[in-house]
C-alpha cells in the first residue's frame, strides 16, 4: 500500500513538474514574442520619425506625412502590449491623433523638386524615396484610413521624383563630360537619359524641359563632330597647294634673268 501511494505521488509530482515546465515555456515564449513585437514597433516608429525630421531631402506631400503618422500610431498600439508603458503609449497615441487632425486642416504642401548637388545627395534622395515607397505599399496592405486613390497617386509622384533625381544627376555628368571634351561618353550618357525619359512615358513639364536640353546638347555635339570631320580635309587641300607651289618653285621652269 505504501509503495502504491509513493508511486502515485511520484507520478503526480512528475506530471505537475511537466505542467509547470510547459507553462513556464509558454510564458517565456509569450514574453519573448511580446519583446520582439515591441522592438519591431519601436524600430518602425524610429524610422518614421527620422523620415519626418529629414524632409529637406525630398518634398513630402500631405498624404505622405499622414501615412507616416498613421504608421506611428499603428506601431504604438502594438507596443501597448507592454503594461509598464501602456499609459505613456496612450498619451503618445492621443498626441499623434492631434497632429493628424492639425495636418488635415493646416498642412501646406511644397512639392518643388530639389535638384541634387552631387552624387552623394542623389543617392541619399533615391534611398529615401525607396523607403517611402516601401512604407506606402505596406500601409496600403494594412488598411490605413486614407483613400487608396490618394495613396496610388502618391506612389506615382514618388516614382516620378526618383526619375527626376536620376535625370538631374545624369545631366550634371553630361555637362561635366562635355566640358572635359569626352564626346563619346557624353553621347552615350545622353542616349541613356533620353531612352529612360521615353520609356517612362511620363507627361511632366520638368522632364520635357530636360529632354529638350539633352536633345539640344546631342545635336550640338553632332554638329561639332561634322565640322571637325570637314576641317582636316580642308587643311589637307591647303597643304597640298602649298606643297605644289614649293615643288613648282624648285622644279618648274627657271625664270630668265
Provide an overview of this structure.
It is a single chain. This protein has seven helices and no strands. The protein is an all-alpha fold and 257 residues long. Helix 1 (2-53) runs antiparallel to helix 2, helix 5 runs antiparallel to helix 6 and helix 5 (148-179) runs parallel beside helix 7. It is elongated. Residues 242-257 have low confidence and may be disordered.
Task: Write a short abstract of this structure.
The chain is built from seven helices and no strands. It has helices at 2-53, 62-79, 86-106, 119-142, 148-179, 183-200, 205-251.
- How helical, in percent, are the residues? over 70%
- What is Rg? 36 Å
Question: What is the beta-strand fraction?
Answer: under 5%
Determine the structural class based on helices, strands and strand pairing.
mainly alpha
Q: What oligomeric arrangement do these chains adopt?
A: single chain
Biggest sheet record? none
Shape: elongated
Number of helices: 7
Could you give the order of the helices and strands? HHHHHHH
Report the end-to-end length measured between terminal Cα atoms: 159 Å
The residue-averaged pLDDT reads: 84
User: What is the total tally of β strands?
Assistant: 0
Q: Which regions contain 5 or more consecutive residues with pLDDT less than 50?
A: 242-257
